[in-house]
Amino acid sequence: MVYLVEDDDNIRELVVYTLNRSGMEAKGFARPSLFYEALTEQLPSLVILDIMLPEEDGLRVLMNLRERPDTGKLPIMMLSAKASEYDKVNGLDSGADDYVTKPFGMMELVARVRALLRRTETSESRSEYKVGRLTVIPEAHKVLVDGEAVQLTKKEYDIILLLLKNGESVVTRERLLSEVWGYAFEGESRTVDVHIRTLRQKLGSAGNYVETIRGVGYCIHSTEV
Prior knowledge:
By secondary structure, the protein is α/β, with parallel strands linked by helices. Helices cover 41% and strands 20% of the residues. The protein has helices spanning 9-21, 32-39, 58-67, 85-93, 106-123, 154-165, 173-181, 191-203, and strands at 2-5, 26-29, 46-50, 76-80, 98-101, 129-131, 134-137, 142-145, 148-149, 171-172, 210-213, 217-220. Strands 2-1-3-4-5 form a five-stranded parallel sheet, sandwiched between helices. Strands 6-7-8-9 form a four-stranded antiparallel sheet, covered by helices on one side. α6 packs across α8. The radius of gyration is 18 Å and the shape is elongated.
């Protein structure tokens, strides 16, 4: 089930119709209050949120969902006419898994919904990752260093999990932007570098496991023998 919160009747009806025709059950809501009411009856597999909404803007709805234990891990896609780099980064750093700007092609939207659902289905497949002092337990969404819990943001957690899933293979900055931020990032940006630096600081004694491969990307491995 896909839930769409969009106050534009034409867009909402077209998206819901297209998703249903593409084999994905979908429901649309014109206001956040109606969406919240539906959550009490059934949790969706994915949520699509417009940003400019009546009652409460989409970013606030996004943050509310991330704070709730029952919806904290739901894949969420933002759908917005706000197309600047700042707006995209703000939405993704607030917890969105993907950000689609209006106007958009319906087939592209369907493809991105399917891709996001696939990523979600496979991301929790392994019960535990362990490298040296570092342990990540996807099912519990826990990151431990020397047995002590480390509090990471969603993006920091997604970065460390992606690096661990790739073993000692290098993950490019472009792939990190695509799979963690959920869109093809154009132009110069220090977004990945800033998040990697903060991640290393939070990991403390395990921070040096995240290695920079200059000009290529990042990989993770224990430097301890």
